[in-house]
Amino acid sequence: MSARELRIEEVSPAWRVLVLGPHPDDFDAIAVTLRRLARNGNPVRAAVVRGGSGVLDSYAPGLTWERKAELREREQRASLRFFGLPEEDVTFLSLDNDCEEGQLCDTPRNRAELAGVLAERAPDLLFLPHGNDTNSAHRALFAMVREWAEGQARALALLLIRDPKTVAMRTDLYTPFDEAQAAWKAELLRHHDTQHQRNWLTRGHGFDDRILAGNRQIARDLSLAAPYAEAFEVARYGASVLR
């Protein structure tokens, strides 16, 4: 399948959308695509794993791991309010986060918890990080969801996200966007102040710049007229809702 634009007119408003985030802020990385789906009338929900990874001790000295997790949850809730996602459509998951400095683990308990969430939400389009990624939580979530998806008989499409830590992936679908949409997305991303400040300290630029630089690179790689794009690899199960 060659890369093509994800055109909203090809998406039924009845299709249920679920975003699985192994960290607070994963939702925001594909916010332009998600806003288009929400405006199309698609029910959009988010399930975000609670965790305090990525909060530097210098950001707020003396915080326990739980306090860091609470801080990141507040940031995610604030960004989702800005996005316009109702509180009742957001679930924070308390999963095992004791692998590689507080990252999500692939454990039987986590697999069971995720299976319960997925069965309840019954998504048609499921967004999550790609498994070919340097971040262990991204890899763990992908592995657990893939096992669940392989056991489903109904139609389902996984849209695997390209983000700055993705090693390599096939681009099947993309969402192009312009400078005005990029400015909106940057403001959304800056709600994650712990990550914004960490990026300034460790990389010399903000969290918004990091994500949007990746979106610019996607647009260049695809030779698009638009200056930015979000990109996805699609994994189909059953009689997939996406062709």
Provide a short characterization of the protein structure:
With 243 residues, the chain is α/β, with parallel strands linked by helices.
Written account of the structure:
The chain has a single domain (4-175, 232-237), classed as Rossmann fold (3-Layer(aba) Sandwich). α5 packs antiparallel against α7. The protein has helices at 31-39, 65-83, 108-121, 136-150, 179-189, 193-203, 207-221, and strands at residues 4-5, 17-21, 44-49, 90-93, 125-129, 156-161, 173-177, 228-237. The protein has an eight-stranded mixed beta sheet, with helices on both faces. The mean pLDDT is 94. By secondary structure, the chain is of the alpha/beta class.
Tell me the number of helical segments per DSSP (H or I, 4 or more residues long): 7
Strand order of the largest sheet: 1-7-8-6-5-2-3-4
Strand content: 15-25%
Distance between the amino and carboxyl termini? 10 Å
Low-confidence stretches: none
Helix content: 25-40%
How would you state the average pLDDT, rounded? 94
Label the CATH architecture: 3-Layer(aba) Sandwich
Order of helices and strands: EEHEHEHEHEEHHHE
Total count of strands: 8
Cα-atom radius of gyration = 17 Å
Main beta-sheet annotation: 8 strands, mixed
CATH class: Alpha Beta
Shape call: globular
CATH fold naming: Rossmann fold
Domain tally:
1
CATH superfamily: LmbE-like
Structural class: alpha/beta
